[in-house]
Write a structure and sequence with these properties.
Strand order of the largest sheet: 5-1-7-6
Radius of gyration: 23 Å
Order of helices and strands: HHEEEEEEEEH
Structural class: alpha+beta
CATH superfamily of the largest domain: Nucleoside Triphosphate Pyrophosphohydrolase
Number of helices: 3
CATH class of the largest domain: Alpha Beta
Helix content: 10-25%
CATH topology of the largest domain: Nucleoside Triphosphate Pyrophosphohydrolase
Distance between the termini: 55 Å
Largest sheet: 4 strands, mixed
C-alpha cells in the first residue's frame, strides 16, 4: 500500500485507471478532480501602522473588524496605503495569500476613534506581525505597554 501511495496514487497525480486496487478504493476516480490544487496568488498589501504611545498609559490599540485579515484581534490603528511607499517597510509579514508590508510610524497627535490605552499587551490577542513590528520599535514590553 505504501508503494502505491508513493508511485500510483500521489498527492498531485492519481492514476486510478492503472491502480490494481481501484475497484476497492472509496476515493477512486473522485480524487482525480480534487487532486490538483491551484496555486494561491500572493498579493502585496501596504499598511501604515500608527504607533501612539504614552509613558503613563502604554500603547493605543483598536480592535480589528470581525471579517478580513486579523479579524477580531487588537492592533494599533491601521491605514491602508494605496501606493507603495518609497521606503523599506519596518516589517514584512507573510500570510498564505498576502504579503503585508508594515510601516510603523510614531504619532505625536492624540489618537481618535474607538480604541483603548493598553499597558500590558500580554493580556490581549495581537497578531504576530504586530508583535514583531512593536519589537522593532522597542514597544510592547511589559514595562512599557499593557
Amino acid at each position: 500500500m505504501m508503494e502505491l501511495g508513493a508511485t500510483v496514487c500521489t498527492a498531485v497525480t492519481m492514476h486510478c485507471d492503472t491502480c490494481p486496487v481501484s475497484a476497492y478504493c472509496i476515493s477512486a476516480y473522485q480524487a482525480v478532480a480534487a487532486g490538483k490544487k491551484k496555486a494561491v496568488a500572493v498579493r502585496d498589501v501596504y499598511w501604515r501602522i500608527d504607533l501612539h504611545t504614552c509613558p503613563d498609559k502604554g500603547i493605543w490599540l483598536t480592535r480589528r473588524p470581525d471579517q478580513g485579515i486579523w479579524a477580531g484581534l487588537w492592533t494599533p490603528p491601521i491605514t491602508v496605503l494605496n501606493d507603495t511607499p518609497g521606503k523599506t517597510p519596518c516589517y514584512t509579514h507573510l500570510l498564505t495569500h498576502r504579503r503585508l508590508h508594515l510601516y510603523g510610524e510614531a504619532q505625536a497627535c492624540s489618537p481618535s476613534g474607538g480604541g483603548k490605552w493598553v499597558n500590558d499587551i500580554s493580556r490581549l490577542a495581537l497578531p504576530t506581525g504586530i508583535h514583531r513590528l512593536l519589537e522593532k520599535h522597542n514597544l510592547g514590553k511589559k514595562e512599557e505597554a499593557s
